[in-house]
Amino acid sequence: MIAASIELNGVNKSFALNGERIDALRSIDLFARPGEFVCVVGASGCGKSTLLRLILGLDHADAGRVSIDGKPVTAPGPDRGIVFQDHRLFPWLTVSENIALALHASDWDASERRRRVREHIDLVGLGRFGDALPDQISGGMAQRAAIARALVAGPKVLLLDEPLGALDALTRHYLQDELLRVWQAERPTVIMVTHDIDEAVYLGDRVIVMSSRPGRIKKSIDIDLERPRRRDDLRLAALRNEILSLFDWSAIAQQ
Prior knowledge:
The protein has 255 residues and is an alpha/beta fold. The protein has eight helices and ten strands.
């Protein structure tokens, strides 16, 4: 897989709500290097998910430019995969069939599609569960299936919208390490939205801190720590505290 760069220049986005214009994002400038793991944190309503929708091509900016490898984003495409907080697996399809859905528009023949599905089921550690239905597996396993589905078509960019947010703490920690393992194996460029600052500094090469609505990039913080990282590393705690200090708590309380 060849990762892609992601670039946003002067991006603004607003929405109409009850006849009023609500600014979601304002003056967003962001560059993610090919293969970089970028985490985005900020208060609820600051435009984090909107940012992902613009990169995915589901929404379009009011002003500015969103591009992948220098090419403007105009619509969703196979170069980008996404995982949501809810795994969104079809309950009447098996794990394998859900993953295979991501290949319906590909040019690969049936044999290659089956091979890629098997490969990615194994990649996320679900080799024994390809024939299971979603209600026969745990929530963590379902999220692993969703990650496999997002990666099976070989996207250059992986977008993650709170993919671990609904899981219990132990499962979340386990899947953080699994996510890192899969990223290091496939090496797409990752933009991950999370409310968990500990998660952001543990996973990311860089953490983007956004201000309250309208969302702006308040600061970009490099996490220049060797991998694998230790959760009890005091340097991670210091970075978490630095990020927390950037939040405008009075503005958050008024959201």
